[in-house]
Amino acid sequence: MVETMGDALGLQILRAVQELGTRMERVEVQVNHLSTRVDALTERVDRLEARMDRLEAQVNHLNTRVDALTARMDGLSARMDKQEKWMDRLGAEFVVFREDVRGDLRQWRAEMQEEHRRLKKRVEVTSTTVVLMASVLRGPTEFSGELEAHLSELHAG
Fold first, then answer.
1. Distance between CA atoms of 38 and 112, rounded to whole angstroms?
2. DSSP labels for the chain?
3. C-alpha–C-alpha distance, residues 73 and 156, integer Å
């Protein structure tokens, strides 16, 4: 009986060892599968890190470009402000110049009108004098009538 018990115990131990071997093989398969998955994930993480590095480099490059564009825009804004002030000053100077020219033209027009009035009076006096002298010197003739008509036309025109 001891021998039967020993055999039974040996069989139990053998079965337990076989079951442990089977379980160990399943665990090894699972470990190998998990190891493969970890390797794949590690590769993905490496690719993602490389992509992230490229994206960070692009972002840094874009930041540099934005800074340069901002500086350029600030410069253009300052130039625009300067030109607006310059245009305002030129506009004010033009208005003053225009008013000066208008004043000069008014004065010139008034002087010309006054000169025209004086010349017109002199022409009237001269034409009347010429007609009178011609009529006195020649007497009543046909020529003096024509001269008077001609001078009247000049005077009217």
1. 106
2. -HHHHHHHHHHHHHHHHHHHHHHHHHHHHHHHHHHHHHHHHHHHHHHHHHHHHHHHHHHHHHHHHHHHHHHHHHHHHHHHHHHHHHHHHHHHHHHHHHHHHHHHHHHHHHHHHHHHHHHHHHHHHHHHHHHHHHHHHH-S-HHHHHHHHHHHHHHH-
3. 71
The answer to whether 131 and 149 are in contact (CB under 8 A) is no
**Angstrom distance (rounded) from CA 29 to CA 31:** 5
How far is the C-alpha of 127 from the C-alpha of 21, rounded, in Å?
A: 150
Total length of the chain? 157
Q: What is the pLDDT of residues 3-15, one digit of tens each?
A: 777 778 888 888 9
Q: How far apart are CA 93 and CA 70, in angstroms?
A: 34
Burial code (b: 16+ CB inside 10 Å, e: under 16) for 134-144 equals bbeeeeeeeeb
Whole-prediction pTM = 0.45
pLDDT, tens digit (0-9, with 9 covering 90-100), for 75-129? 999 999 999 999 999 999 999 999 999 999 999 999 999 999 998 888 777 777 7
The two tokens of residue 107 are 């004065």
